[in-house]
């Protein structure tokens, strides 16, 4: 979202990023030269609707772009209370099914002027499963900045992150949530030879349980956890021998594109990919099953 905002600003648009004050995106916005406006919109609460309505009343916009369920509902209700002074666009990045009920239909057809999906498969699902008008839904596949995500010196990247220079490293960059599947990767790597190490870049609610799992699995020094940052993410892409991705609801896996652009082999869930991503097989990619016993052979294939 930050790169999208930065790109729009560079094209001459006046972009304001409305976000919760304690969110990571709010903290990182200045580094991207994006103006962030802190509002209490982290949850679906009346306070968030009032805050947005007040801001919309004081600041006229040409369009409001929403990217999640919470900000879409808060913005839709705030704009409705003001008589819809300007349109709202709803962007869908995930394949989790949209509920087929009157409220969701109101959000996507009445409160929203246009729907943008991050892949053709999701656009098709909204049309066929939910019955939303096809003429109001646009598919915009996720892109990648090839100048920013490109191959680099693996040894230098490992030295910068204090990673072992000679190990085969399997890495993952993702928020530490249960449905991201870190547990299966930890269990799979624990069964591989000692020459294989695991690098996890990220933070989140599953940090402590994962650290406990790593200790129980006996990975010890083969495990390295890094806080999520631009430097550590880029370093992980360049320093690892392979990277895994398991986000079952992502339709267009931008991280897969970034890994391929960075020259890093990648494993992913086939069911999460769009048709365009399945054609992106360079330098090497494979389907990563959910269960640990089936995951290990795929990881071993990159060793």
Task: Give structural notes.
The protein is of the alpha/beta class. It has two domains: 101 residues, Glycogen Phosphorylase B (Rossmann fold, 3-Layer(aba) Sandwich), CATH 3.40.50.2000; 147 residues, 3-Layer(aba) Sandwich (Rossmann fold). The protein contains 13 helices and twelve strands. Strand 11, helix 12 and strand 12 form a beta-alpha-beta unit. Helix 8 packs parallel to helix 9. The relative contact order is 0.10.
* CATH C-level category of the largest domain: Alpha Beta
User: What is the fold-level CATH name, i.e. the topology of the largest domain?
Assistant: Rossmann fold
Which architecture name of the largest domain does CATH use? 3-Layer(aba) Sandwich
The count of DSSP E runs of length 2 or more, i.e. the number of strands, is 12
As for the number of domains, it is: 2
User: What's the end-to-end separation, in Å?
Assistant: 34 Å
> Strands of the largest sheet, in order across it?
9-8-7-10-11-12
How much of the sequence lies in strands comes to 15-25%
Give the count of helical stretches. Answer: 13
Order of helices and strands: HEHEHEHEHEHEHEHEHEHEHEHEH
pLDDT averaged residue by residue: 80
The structural class is alpha/beta
**What are the low-pLDDT stretches, counting only 5+ consecutive residues below 50?**
270-274, 276-291
Task: Classify the helix fraction into a percent range.
Answer: 25-40%
